[in-house]
Write a structure and sequence with these properties.
single chain, about 800 residues, about 25% helix, disordered N terminus, binds zinc ion
């Protein structure tokens, strides 16, 4: 029965070219052999270190055990925390398959087969595959509901798991030609076709991705029911659902990016796929409008999207905080997927501008240079509270990185009839089959460290085609389309020569187009004017007021404590006209261009608002490379006005104290950083909190540098209600150290507890070496401290 079903399902396997699809097709990453010094080493680290590492972590953290339990090879116990944990295994398979395609590896191939064998056994007879339900744990997970699918629009993630499995199956089938995983996927998709649809279960996926997975199954099989189901999953959304997962309007009526950023960008990618596969213009109109909304109002200079941790979501227009930026790694990857598809639909280089910006900055920052530590959010400023982690219980970003990286060469070229697009710049050799004939293309460059690119064309016979070479927006003084970011220096002209002769450049949709009959050995040289550029944000972006960012080609820079005086960067001010020097440092952070400039460091002093300033050399490094020497201060947007800088604190009693708390937290130093919040919920300045603790007694302690007499304290509470988990405390008390004992301060004034202001308490002067701020958390919430001043 089983085998017979498989044969039937695979019968309609048809050639890709029969399916209507994107007018432009990417040149597959398997046709592009990257040999450069930038991406090749990163893909190599992914293949040799990250992929084995993530497999070990999946084993260690119950992901494989869940499949074993569902397969009946282990006790009926769910071994991990989240209902989407199966996807880590699928994403790992996708990454491993892609890596196999680049470099064969018999051991890995064998392991994949044994893992797929377990997944086969974990699949229920009718195709259902979701370990959390199949395991039949004594107490089912709260998120999954008592029947299949019914909680998918909320939290069960059954369809999300299916979507990632289809993506993995597509990759594995293409990489190995084997159908073992594809058969599992098709059987599952057939079940979805049976259960969902108009007049059947009319439920929308809570976390999108099944749409693009189904589109891929349609591409492989040509079976239109998968395409129809993908379209159904889009059309069934809205208008009465949550904005959180883009179900507040029908998808065709959406014009703005809202809600959870990863879900959103996967959905827009799905809409692009269905638009390409069906010719649906209503989807196109919607995603064109949404794209403008994101690029003109909601995109970080790093290409990151999803500004707020509140729902891992897009914020309001121009709300782009730096230190609290969410900009999830998965959202950066989703942004690349989406922009790549927009390019394939429209053939405009502006989409590749966004893609390239994301790739070199907000996506690449997601993984450490050594391939074993990861960022979930990718902030644009830090005082040391951020650090990549070897694992997260919600490991989405980690497994996503490893599946994405091997596919990078697939974004370099694209083709449409006899038009060949050069989108990204990295040394590689490629074979591209155009209708006019086979073209071997050799690209040689040291990009992104310089802007010289050489392309050599090798054709068996003279071949007529149009070569479209992307002129990056940054090379024309335009970081991204629209007014969100601008550059004040006018770059030099891009020059292109063919066989050594300057060529007249005709630009169409952001590409220099050369339509000619190419001969063997023809060579093209492109000079992109690479120099440090000042980027300014629209004045509507309050977080970047009085500041500029530095970019060098596609690479956005940051200041990091490691390279700057006293390990500080928040206190630095750099004049807009300060000259910038670029030098290649081959032994720093795997080889980078470093940028140095003169600047000023500002420092507060006691009993006056006057600042002490001193000249210093300021050093910037590529943003993606920060936090590879340990956590510390970092800043992308550099103040040019003193008002925007955060001077080094004055040597107050609080600042010169050693500060500790009842929990270990990297944020603890923020209680004495002398940065005043605008209000209690202000997360643009650092704060310390006890979340997720509640209803407990906690403390912060100052150990003075020497004995001091003190008689008052001021505390500014952090409170992110009504949505967040912190509220002003139920009670607080100040203790002082006397003869090794904590004693409450005497004759204290009332301990005021109010939001949005300093709460002052005065008491009988005490001569002591330490103070303790004891906090009783509210019954249902945590509390937090912005600032604690001692006088
Ligand atoms: Zn993620």
């Amino acid at each position: 029965m089983h085998i017979k079903t498989l044969l039937v399902t695979l019968l309609p396997l048809i050639c890709k070219s029969q399916v209507k699809d994107y007018p432009i097709q990417p040149v597959s990453f398997t046709q592009v052999k990257v040999t450069d010094n930038f991406w090749q080493p990163k893909m190599n680290v992914n293949a040799t270190i990250t992929i084995p590492y993530i497999l070990e972590m999946c084993k260690k953290h119950g992901r494989i055990d869940n499949f074993l339990a569902a397969a009946g090879k282990r006790e009926n116990k769910v071994c991990s925390e989240f209902t989407f944990d199966d996807t880590d295994v699928y994403k790992w398979i996708e990454g491993a398959s892609y890596a196999l395609q680049v470099a064969p590896n018999a051991t890995l191939s064998k392991y994949l087969d044994s893992l797929i064998d377990i997944i086969t056994q974990a699949q229920e007879p009718d195709g259902y595959l979701f370990t959390f339900r199949t395991i039949k744990a004594a107490k089912p997970h709260d998120w999954i509901g008592d029947k299949r699918w019914i909680k998918d629009s909320i939290l069960s993630h059954e369809l999300y798991n299916s979507g990632h499995m289809y993506e993995a199956a597509y990759a594995h089938f293409n990489a190995t030609g084997k159908k073992n995983l594809l058969n599992i996927a098709l059987k599952n998709a057939d079940l979805l076709c049976k259960d969902f649809g108009w007049g059947k279960l009319e439920i929308y996926p809570g976390h999108q991705i099944v749409e693009i997975g189904l589109a891929k199954l349609y591409r492989i099989t040509g079976n239109k029911k998968y395409l129809d189901l993908a379209k159904f999953f889009l059309d069934v959304r809205g208008p009465h659902g949550d904005a959180y997962n883009q179900a507040n309007k029908r998808v065709v009526d959406q014009t703005e990016a809202v809600g959870h950023a990863v879900r959103a960008a996967y959905m827009y990618s799905g809409m692009a796929d269905i638009a390409a596969l069906t010719g649906d213009t209503a989807y196109l109109k919607a995603i064109d409008a949404i794209w403008n909304d994101v690029v003109m109002k909601k995109l970080y200079i790093t290409g990151g999207i999803g500004a707020t941790n509140n729902g891992e979501a897009f914020g309001d227009a121009f709300y782009l905080p730096n230190m609290s930026a969410y900009a999830e790694t998965c959202a950066a990857i989703a942004n690349v997927y989406w922009n790549s598809r927009m390019f394939l639909l429209h053939g405009d280089a502006k989409y590749i501008d966004v893609l390239e910006r994301t790739l070199y900055n907000g996506l690449l920052s997601g993984m450490s240079l050594n391939g074993t530590k990861f960022f979930y959010p990718n902030p644009l400023a830090s005082v040391g509270q951020h650090d990549r982690s070897p694992w997260f219980s919600c490991a989405c970003c980690i497994s996503n990185m490893t599946r994405f990286l091997p596919s990078v060469p697939g974004y370099v070229y694209a083709q449409n009839k006899n038009n060949l697009y050069v989108n990204l710049f990295m040394s590689n050799s490629s074979t591209i089959k155009l209708p006019a004939g086979k073209v071997q293309l050799m690209q040689t460059t040291n990009y992104p460290w310089d802007g010289h690119i050489a392309l050599q064309v090798d054709v068996a016979k003279p071949t007529t085609f149009a070569l479209h070479i992307r002129i990056p927006g940054w090379a024309e003084g335009k970081p991204v389309p629209g007014e969100l970011y601008s550059i004040d220096e006018q770059p030099q002209k891009v020059t292109i020569a063919i066989n050594g002769k300057p060529a007249t450049v005709k630009v169409e949709k952001g590409y220099a187009v050369f339509q000619r009959t190419w001969q063997k050995g023809d060579n093209i040289t492109v000079e992109l004017p690479m120099q440090p550029q000042h980027v300014y944000a629209s004045e509507q972006v309050k977080a970047d007021e009085g500041r500029f960012a530095i970019q060098y080609g596609p690479v956005v820079y940051c200041l990091e404590g490691w390279d700057n005086k006293d390990s500080l960067v928040q206190n630095i001010i750099v004049d807009k006209n300060a000259p910038m020097q670029v030098s290649y440092a081959g032994n720093v952070l795997n080889g980078i261009n470093r940028i140095t400039m003169p600047g000023t460091g500002a420092k507060r002093q006691l009993n006056t608002t006057d600042l002490i300033t001193s000249e210093q050399t300021v050093t910037a490094i590529p943003y993606y490379a920060w936090d590879n020497r340990g956590p510390g201060e970092m800043e992308v947007w550099i103040p040019y006005s003193q008002a925007a800088a955060r001077p080094q604190p004055a040597p107050t009693i609080a600042y010169t104290s050693k500060v500790t708390a009842s929990i270990r937290s990297r944020s603890i130093m923020s209680v004495h950083d002398q940065l005043e919040p605008a209000d209690s919920k202000d997360n643009s300045v650092p704060y310390f909190h006890w979340w997720p603790k509640k209803n407990s007694t906690e403390w912060v302690q100052y150990d003075f540098d020497s004995e001091h007499t003190v008689s008052s304290c001021k505390v500014y509470w952090f409170d992110d209600g009504p949505w967040g988990g912190c509220r002003i405390p139920a009670k607080w008390t100040i203790y002082y150290m006397k003869d090794g004992q904590w004693l409450p301060v005497k004759n204290a004034t009332a301990y005021e507890i109010a939001k949005d202001k300093y709460n002052t308490v005065s008491f009988e002067p005490v001569k002591t070496t330490a103070l303790k701020l004891e906090v009783q958390l509210p019954v249902d919430y945590a509390s937090g401290v912005h600032e604690w001043i001692v006088e």
